């Protein structure tokens, strides 16, 4: 590997890691659920269909570490914890909604293409 390709690989690894974090099934659900204001853990647990408490906790920590969520703990009994999107995450949310709109618009085209491919592969 040349020095240039080593540098490109070193730069690409964190980018791939971040994309893996934000493009994951659970991360997208969490970001979408938190997009309309502060959200509590239990709200996320109900909103993000199929996620376990453990996966929710791990993904929240990961998104917080990446600077996409802010976790606020209020000194109440029991403690109240809310998650809010950062400005960076709100920008990401805009991109995600564009991608979701694209997927919705082309869902039937993709289904047709898959059926044609599968029929030709038989």
Walkthrough of the structure:
The chain has 122 residues and is mainly α. It has five helices and three strands, in the order ααβααββα. It has a three-stranded antiparallel β-sheet with strand order 1-3-2. A hairpin with a 5-residue loop joins strand 2 and strand 3. It is elongated. The model has no long low-confidence stretch (mean pLDDT 88).
Present the secondary structure layout.
Layout (H helix, E strand, L loop, with lengths): L2 H21 L1 H10 L4 E2 H7 L5 H13 L3 E6 L5 E6 L1 H35 L1
Short description:
The chain has 122 residues and is mainly alpha-helical. Helix content is 70%, strand content 11%. It has helices at 3-23, 25-34, 41-47, 53-65, 87-121, and strands spanning 39-40, 69-74, 80-85.
Q: Distance between termini?
A: 41 Å
Low-confidence stretches: none
Largest sheet: 3 strands, antiparallel
SSE order in H/E notation? HHEHHEEH
* Mean pLDDT score: 88
Overall geometric form? elongated
Radius of gyration: 19 Å
| Biggest β-sheet: strands ordered side by side in the sheet | 1-3-2
Structural class: mainly alpha
Kindly list the characteristics that best describe this protein:
5 helices, 3 strands, single chain, 122 residues, elongated, mainly alpha, three-stranded antiparallel sheet
């Amino acid at each position: 590997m040349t020095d240039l390709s080593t540098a490109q690989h070193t730069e690409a690894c964190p980018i791939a890691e971040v994309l893996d974090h934000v493009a994951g099934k659970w991360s997208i659900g969490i970001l979408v659920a938190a997009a309309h204001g502060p959200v509590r853990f239990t709200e996320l647990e109900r909103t993000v269909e199929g996620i376990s408490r453990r996966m929710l906790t791990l993904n929240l920590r990961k998104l917080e570490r990446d600077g996409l969520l802010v976790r606020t703990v209020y000194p109440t009994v029991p403690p109240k914890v809310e998650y809010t999107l950062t400005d960076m995450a709100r920008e990401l949310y805009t991109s995600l909604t564009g991608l979701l709109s694209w997927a919705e618009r082309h869902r039937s085209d993709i289904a047709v293409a898959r059926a044609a491919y599968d029929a030709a592969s038989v």
